[in-house]
Amino acid sequence: MSDVLIIGGGQAGSMVAINLRKKKFEGSISIITEEASYPYQRPPLSKGFLTGKTKIESLFFKSEEYYEKNGIKVLLRHRAIKLNTKKQEVILEDGRSIDYKKLVITTGSNLNKITSKEHKRIIYLNTLSNAIELQKQLKESKSVGIVGAGYIGLEVAATAKKMGLQTTVFEAEKRIMQRSASKEISNFIKSYHEKMGVEFKLNTIAERIEPTDKGVRIDLSDGKGSNPDFVVIGVGVQAASSIAEDAGLDCSNGILVDENCLTNDKNIYAAGDCVNYYYSRYGTRHRLESVQNAIDQAAIVSSSIVGEPILYNSTPWFWSDQYDLKLKIAGLSQECDLTVIRGKTEEIKFSACHFKENKLTAVECVNDQKTFMLGKKLIETESSITPEAMENTLTNLKDWG
Ligand SMILES: Cc1cc2nc3c(=O)[nH]c(=O)nc-3n(C[C@H](O)[C@H](O)[C@H](O)COP(=O)(O)OP(=O)(O)OC[C@H]3O[C@@H](n4cnc5c(N)ncnc54)[C@H](O)[C@@H]3O)c2cc1C
Question: 180 CB contacts (<8 Å, ≥6 apart)?
Fold first, then answer.
């Protein structure tokens, strides 16, 4: 029996436990994690960890001793397979069951897979063990094919290029970062990668990916093919919400929670990538995949459990590192109707500022920390600022290719 039982020992799950102890919560806490490692941060796995700049020891949020000393039981290599909300119990793969008073689901996301066979030269990047394999392939290979031009694919492309590999990115959409960044930013980042020597094949689907004796064969939708030494696939994720769904919790593109991260069961909270959260700022639900989102929602859950619910009005934000580009995004740029550019793209320090009905809704900043901080604050406080005041050059969305 656990007073607080957490399924998933990633960013959100570990932060819930750590926060609870910081708040002097004295009940028992257990984390069920299917992974072999204590909770660690994922962002460096597609960045500094690959080049060796970030050492493995610095990935972990806390040491093993911390969890022991603070009475947080971490059940490594244990997968939760079933939830019985009436009995308030979670069943593990080995047949054991654990009762809870409060349950927190932080199961993150599941990779979209486009291949059926596992192979060391076909890599999906979501865990430390995948990243270790990728690190090895990067060191030993001369060429890489990257399927998917989202953040993970592009960060790996930047690293591969820096390490001297011939790098080709295959993307099904017409532009890179279609889902996550504006056209302005996506066009800039693409041309930056091209300058560095990365080749892009847009509008191109990788239809078949098979290991060969020496590398990997990729058959493409344009009838052509490619034979890199290895391939990295980053074609998105989905909410890992099946355990909640099977137990009858309300789910739709993630576990549906209210502003306190509470599900439709009063004893069950959920946080992080697996959650579809109601943002009163936007009046809509969003499922976000970011560290900030996981940290913020973990804080909401732990505060709520100790009976000190917090009012949440934070602006979603995200970052990505590619070469010497530090991209930081605050707010949600979808559905904007006007974009102004602040700063100069030639100086590789600028921001795309997005407005909807004359209200600033998002800023996407390249090496421009000042505008990021300013924009985030303006969005948070819902201050009125005109596009003219944000810009250097006023550019209507229609003018961008
Ligand atoms: C390579 C990479 C780079 C990234 N870079 C950035 C970045 O630059 N900036 C940024 O903001 N975000 C980045 N992200 C995203 C960010 O890491 C995630 O949004 C964040 O980790 C989400 O936290 P979470 O706790 O919801 O899920 P996770 O951290 O994914 O943790 C979920 C955990 O639950 C476990 N689990 C799932 N189901 C079960 C089960 N049934 N039983 C037991 N355990 C289970 C999983 O194995 C996993 O360990 C990156 C992600 C990856 C993979």
Answer: 150, 151, 318
Residue 310: inside a domain: no
Residues forming beta bridges with residue 256, ordered by sequence position = 276
User: Which of 181, 198, 233 finishes a domain?
Assistant: 233
Which position has the higher pLDDT, 90 or 311? 90
Closest CA to 122 of 140, 146, 139: 146
Q: What is the CATH number of the domain that holds 136?
A: 3.50.50.60
Q: Is the dihedral of CA 38, 39, 44, 46 positive or negative?
A: positive
Query: Which of 79, 291, 319, 320 is the pocket-test mutation for ligand 1 (most atoms within 8 Å of CB)?
Result: 291
Measured in Å, residue 301 CA sits from the centre of ligand 1 at 17
| Closest alpha carbon to 107 in 283, 235, 312, 247 | 247
Give the tokens for residue 296: 């913020």
Does residue 311 belong to any structural domain of this protein? no
Q: 289 CB less than 6 Å from ligand 1?
A: yes
The bridge status of strand 97-105 relative to strand 89-92 is antiparallel
Residue whose CA is at the smallest distance from ligand 1 atom 10: 290
Domain count, the chain: 3
267-311 confidence digits (pLDDT tens): 999 999 999 999 887 788 999 999 999 999 999 999 999 999 998
Neighbours of 347 (CB within 10 A): 10
State which of 91, 156, 273, 317 you would mutate to test the pocket of ligand 1, scoring each by most atoms of that ligand within 8 A of its C-beta. Answer: 273
Beta pairing, strands 338-344 & 393-395: antiparallel
What's the rounded Cα separation, in Å, for the pair 178 and 283? 23
**Domain stops at, among 180, 198, 233:** 233
Q: How far apart are CA 47 and CA 197, in angstroms?
A: 18
Which amino acid belongs to residue 9? Answer: G
Q: Are 216 and 228 in contact (CB under 8 A)?
A: yes
Report residue 190 CA to chain centroid gap.
20
Q: Let me know whether 105 and 181 are in one domain.
A: no
Measured CA to CA, the distance from residue 219 to residue 208 in angstroms comes to 5
Question: What predicted TM-score, i.e. pTM, was given to this entire model?
Answer: 0.95
- Minimum mean pLDDT range among 128-132, 382-386, 389-393: 389-393
Closest C-alpha among 102, 50, 109, 51 to residue 255: 109
Nearest to 106 by CA among 176, 34, 45: 34
